[in-house]
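Go through this pair.

…
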Amino acid sequence: LQKLLHLLQSTDDPLIQEQVLITLGNSAAFSVNHDIIRNLDGLSIIGRMLSDCTPRVKEKALNALNNLSMNIKNQKEIQVYIMQVCKDIESASLNSDLQLAGLRLLTNMSVTSDYHHMMINSIPCFLHLLSEGNERTQIQALKVLVNLSANPAMTRHILQARV
């Protein structure tokens, strides 16, 4: 894992970055690796890939962060990317893999109410995706909205959202 993270930091080749992120994402599917990747500063290394202009690299980084977000300690570090992920979801092509990857990450990050306040401005986007997206996009947007709606503090924001 340490060598993969080093390789990810040291290359500008999007094809290599994509393959490394896929491998890290697969490794992150096993909870035993969550702490290891976090302790190797992997969350910030992977998170920096969200600034990449290549949609496939961003998508793979989101997938890796999604798998890593099943850990409360990791969520505390991943939360710094929530607003950027929201912006990426809004600017991504409708029904794209990038948009779906962002929604999946937000679904995990919204299971508890800790980070709901960071998603308030994107509620109109989630509602738009619910009405305009394909079935896969609608399901992912609905999961985020259901998680947000479980928090009474979000009721007013959801009901007042302009779509």
Remarks:
- The radius of gyration is 16 Å.
- The chain is about 70% helix and 0% strand.
